[in-house]
């Protein structure tokens, strides 16, 4: 994705030359990775002669925003509950009436406290 | 001698001791939860933490008690405990004079049943535990560190203030929260989360979850929810001490609750059951602070001493051997 965001588009052979040779990844692996990203909807492609030219479907910022919102959604849904403590529980809500009753209680106490101050 | 027979007896003893501890602790949980309800949150959290770890501690103590005479006999052969068993057929597990009894298929079935049952319960939790660090790592990769606030800021509109991580917990806040909350509220929230980080609450919770797996489901649920509440209350107290205003902490909890209720759209999920834990937290903050019962060091020392004395007492050794004899017959 990094390569394609930088170059705009490219075929498997070009990605292999840029990344694969340096990292010791075969052209077949690059091809199947690009195919998987295409299947996931992250890339689009056109067939030119015998080769597929791939390009990102989303800009990097758009992709990161979507991924971040997905992760925050997972976090708020309790997916990382095992290793997280939230200021208030993210998956449980007090009912509105209950909340109003508590707010009144705290407000009364605040007024009483303010009155008792010299 | 039969290595498998001795191994089986040891494993069966561990299973039996765990089950005995499970029954006793499942009965003790509601009593201790009620007994500690008036304690300072810090002390209550420690007491519940110890209760949550009591099952493996008890099992270990019983096994140590069972095997302790063997260890002694290795060091000082003249203290060979087996001599006391001569003249009466009291079954015992000795590492010096290993038993010649062969293992039985029924024993292995019992052990396999317990291992499979425990593995299935652990497996599901382990999967979620393996996913969590990946999610947190990816999230931190997209966050920036705000040295002024001492927190990682996630560029999202959702109002988020959490501490994440087990060994190196970190505080995460979102741009959405920074925009929606006042400076006073942010100060309270960050102080609360910093307290979670200092106390390693996520790690403590993980240990208790693992250590209490064999408790009765009702007792375990009560233990975990009360432990969670006492940790939140302890962090509320820490935040109140830092900002110097208990009511401000209560007001911030309610403001955040209202903010989340408006955003997540899951506001009525718990309303049918009454209140979430915020009610207990807010009401606790309306009361004057309670002083902790004892220092953590003294508590640990006291528990360690009791466990050691019980584990090494001849009476417990006799009980463990009797349990073994009962199992074998």
Describe what you observe in this structure.
The complex is a heterodimer of chains A (about 120) and B (about 325). Chain A has about 120 residues and is an alpha+beta fold. Chain A contains five helices and four strands; from the N terminus they run H-E-H-H-E-E-H-E-H. Chain A has a three-stranded antiparallel sheet. The longest helix of chain A has 21 residues. The termini of chain A are far apart. With about 325 residues, chain B is mostly helical. In chain B, about 70% of the residues lie in helices and about 5% in strands. Chain B has a four-stranded mixed sheet, sandwiched between helices. Chain B is elongated and about 75 Å long. At the A-B interface, helix 4, strand 4 and helix 5 of A face helix 3, strand 3, helix 5, helix 6 and helix 7 of B.
N-to-C order of helices and strands of chain A:
HEHHEEHEH
Radius of gyration of chain A: 26 Å
Describe the main β-sheet of chain A briefly: 3 strands, antiparallel
Low-confidence stretches of chain A: none
Mean pLDDT reading of chain A:
85
Task: Determine the number of helices of chain A (DSSP H or I, runs of at least 4 residues).
Answer: 5
Helix content of chain B: 55-70%
What share of the residues of chain A lie within helices? 55-70%
Instruction: Find the structural class of chain B using helix and strand composition.
Output: mainly alpha
Could you tell me the strand content of chain A as a percent range?
5-15%
Number of helices of chain B: 11
- SSE class of chain A: alpha+beta
The number of distinct β-strands of chain B equals 4
How do the strands line up in the largest sheet of chain B?
1-2-4-3
Strand order of the largest sheet of chain A: 1-3-2
- Mind telling me the C-alpha Rg of chain B? 25 Å
Give the topology, please.
The complex is a heterodimer of chains A (118) and B (329).
Chain A: H1 2-7, E1 10-11, H2 12-23, H3 27-39, E2 43-48, E3 51-56, H4 60-76, E4 84-86, H5 96-116
Antiparallel strand pairs in A: 1-3, 2-3
Helix pairs in contact in A: 2-3
Chain B: H1 3-35, H2 41-75, H3 105-141, E1 144-146, E2 151-154, E3 161-164, E4 170-174, H4 175-180, H5 183-199, H6 201-211, H7 217-243, H8 246-264, H9 278-286, H10 296-312, H11 314-328
Parallel strand pairs in B: 2-4
Antiparallel strand pairs in B: 1-2, 3-4
Helix pairs in contact in B: 1-2, 1-3, 1-7, 1-11, 2-6, 2-7, 2-10, 2-11, 5-7, 5-8, 6-7, 7-8, 7-9, 8-9
């Amino acid at each position: 994705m990094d390569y394609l965001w930088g170059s705009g588009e490219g075929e498997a052979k070009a990605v292999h030359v840029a990344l694969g040779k340096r990292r010791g990844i075969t052209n077949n692996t690059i091809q199947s990775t690009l195919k998987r990203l295409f299947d996931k909807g992250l890339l689009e492609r056109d067939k030119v002669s015998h080769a597929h030219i791939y390009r990102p479907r989303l800009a990097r910022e758009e992709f990161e925003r979507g991924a971040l919102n997905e992760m925050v959604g997972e976090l708020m849904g309790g997916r990382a509950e095992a290793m997280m403590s939230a200021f208030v529980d993210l998956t449980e809500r007090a009912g509105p009436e209950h909340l109003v009753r508590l707010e009144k209680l705290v407000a009364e106490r605040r007024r009483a406290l303010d009155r008792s101050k010299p | 001698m039969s290595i498998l027979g001795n191994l089986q007896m040891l494993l069966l003893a561990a299973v039996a001791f765990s089950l005995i501890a499970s029954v006793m602790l499942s009965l003790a949980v509601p009593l201790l939860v009620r007994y500690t309800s008036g304690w300072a949150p810090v002390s209550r959290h420690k007491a519940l933490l110890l209760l949550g770890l009591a099952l493996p501690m008890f099992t270990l103590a019983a096994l140590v008690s069972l095997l302790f005479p063997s260890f002694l006999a290795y060091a000082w052969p003249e203290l060979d405990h087996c001599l006391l068993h001569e003249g009466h057929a009291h079954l015992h597990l000795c590492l010096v004079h290993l038993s010649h009894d062969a293992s039985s298929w029924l024993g292995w079935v019992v052990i396999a049943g317990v291992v499979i049952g425990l593995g299935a319960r652990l497996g599901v939790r382990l999967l979620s535990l393996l996913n969590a660090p990946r999610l947190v790592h990816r999230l931190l990769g997209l966050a920036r560190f705000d040295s002024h606030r001492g927190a990682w800021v996630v560029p999202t509109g959702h109002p988020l203030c959490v501490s994440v991580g087990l060994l190196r917990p970190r505080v995460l806040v979102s741009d959405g929260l920074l925009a929606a909350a006042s400076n006073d509220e942010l100060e309270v929230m960050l102080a609360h989360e910093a307290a979670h980080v200092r106390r390693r609450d996520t790690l403590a919770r993980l240990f208790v979850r693992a250590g209490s797996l064999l408790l009765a489901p009702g007792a375990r649920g009560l233990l975990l929810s009360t432990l969670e509440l006492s940790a939140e209350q302890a962090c509320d107290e820490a935040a109140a001490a830092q900002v110097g205003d208990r009511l401000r902490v209560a007001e911030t909890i309610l403001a955040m609750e209202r903010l989340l209720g408006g955003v997540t759209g899951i506001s009525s999920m718990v309303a049918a059951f009454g209140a979430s834990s915020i009610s207990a937290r807010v009401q606790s903050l309306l009361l004057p602070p309670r002083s902790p019962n004892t220092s953590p060091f003294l508590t640990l020392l006291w528990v360690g001493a009791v466990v050691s004395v019980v584990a090494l007492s001849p009476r417990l050794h006799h009980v463990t051997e009797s349990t073994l004899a009962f199992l074998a017959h």
